[in-house]
Amino acid sequence: MYNTTMAATKRIPVSERVWAEVSELKRPGQTFDDLLSHMVEQEKKRRFIEDMDRIEAEGDFVELDFDVPDTD
């Protein structure tokens, strides 16, 4: 949620087209700060999954053989 006691406000210049597209993504009552924060988190998750998929596809893995002690 938007924090009204933010220490600083930054401006991000964008084209009219991008402004319109981002504005369309906003939900009623949602601030641009909230929307952009959500978009950043989604992008971080997407990149993580992309990296893991790449590592799995390109990586050479070895099986680790170890015994797990019985808990009984």
Question: Which structural class matches the secondary elements?
Answer: mainly alpha
Largest sheet: none
Gyration radius, to the nearest Å? 22 Å
- Helical percentage: 40-55%
The oligomeric state is single chain
Total helices: the number is 2
Q: What would the average pLDDT be, to the nearest integer? A: 89
What is the 3D form? elongated
Strand content: under 5%
* Strand element count: 0
SSE succession:
HH
Walk me through this protein's architecture.
- The structure is a single chain.
- This protein is an all-alpha fold and 72 residues long.
- It has a domain at 30-56.
- Helix content is 51%, strand content 0%.
- It contains 2 helices and no strands.
- The longest helix is centred in the middle third of the chain and has 27 residues, at 32-58.
- The termini are far apart.
- 0% of the residues are buried.
- The model has no long low-confidence stretch (mean pLDDT 89).
Fold blueprint:
Layout: H1 16-25, H2 32-58
Summarize the model shown.
The protein is an all-alpha fold. 51% of the residues lie in helices and 0% in strands.
